[in-house]
Amino acid sequence: MDKNFWDNVYESKSENNVSWYQEMPKRSLEIIMSLNLPISAKIIDVGGGQSKLSECLYEKSYKDLTVLDISEVALSKLKESLNAKNSSNKINLILSNVVEAKFTKQFDLWHDRAVFHFLTNPEDQKKYIDLLLTSLMANGYFLISTFSKNGPSKCSGLEICQYDKKDLVSMFSKLELIESGTEDHHTPFNTVQNFTYCLFKKMN
Ligand SMILES: C[S@@+](CC[C@H](N)C(=O)[O-])C[C@H]1O[C@@H](n2cnc3c(N)ncnc32)[C@H](O)[C@@H]1O
Question: Is residue 148 packed enough to be buried (19+ CB in 10 Å), middle (13-18) or exposed (0-12)?
Fold first, then answer.
């Protein structure tokens, strides 16, 4: 999976013309707010693209926010919209492939919506999991959403891996499952994509 592919997606499509667009990341926000994390919590949205999650969390007073993405175009478009809200300097943007990322701090919460499922190669999956485990603080949370077994088999023309709860529990077996479910995402094209989501906690 390469940077140019994703830059091209973000260059050629407007914010609400991609299948994963959400006017409001409602389910993620509900779960995150239910955790009652302190406002000093360090939160990262991995593969956040132009998602409004960081802006919503900022508005809810979270101030240690990071968005990582492989696409420079996605991050510059995100920065533009954060600028308009005066919050661009407050949110840390990291341009990197997640499997090659190096962080200088650990996180209380790692959020991933529709990113891990693009890692179809076991080596990349292992790199992601190793990085996640070292980057989460003790008692930190991991909230992931992927396409479910009833969801699409491709996204943006790329093969993805579909997961159900059992698969994610086995993939992230070093973490403890706290909550899980499925969600129908209604795309801007009037189609429905079924997601599996799981909230995990690092117990030590
Ligand atoms: C389907 S979009 C989801 C965007 C966002 N999470 C959301 O829910 O709106 C996938 C995002 O992951 C990014 N991405 C894909 N592969 C990545 C990788 N290996 N490392 C970091 N970001 C990646 C893409 O640039 C894109 O922004």
Answer: buried
- Ligand 1 neighbour 1 (Cβ under 6 A): yes
Instruction: Note the pLDDT tens digit of each residue in 2-61.
Output: 889 999 999 999 999 999 999 999 999 999 999 999 999 999 999 999 999 999 999 999
- Say how many C-beta atoms besides its own lie within 10 A of residue 44's C-beta: 26
Question: So what's the pLDDT on residue 49?
Answer: 98
Nearest atom in ligand 1 to 71's CA: 25
- Residue of 184, 116, 187, 186 whose CA lies nearest to 150: 184
Nearest to 94 by CA among 80, 114, 79: 79
What one-character DSSP code corresponds to residue 20?
T
Which CATH code is given to the segment(s) 39-201?
Answer: 3.40.50.150
- Cα distance between residue 55 and residue 79, in whole Å: 10
- Listed by start position, the domains of the chain span 39-201
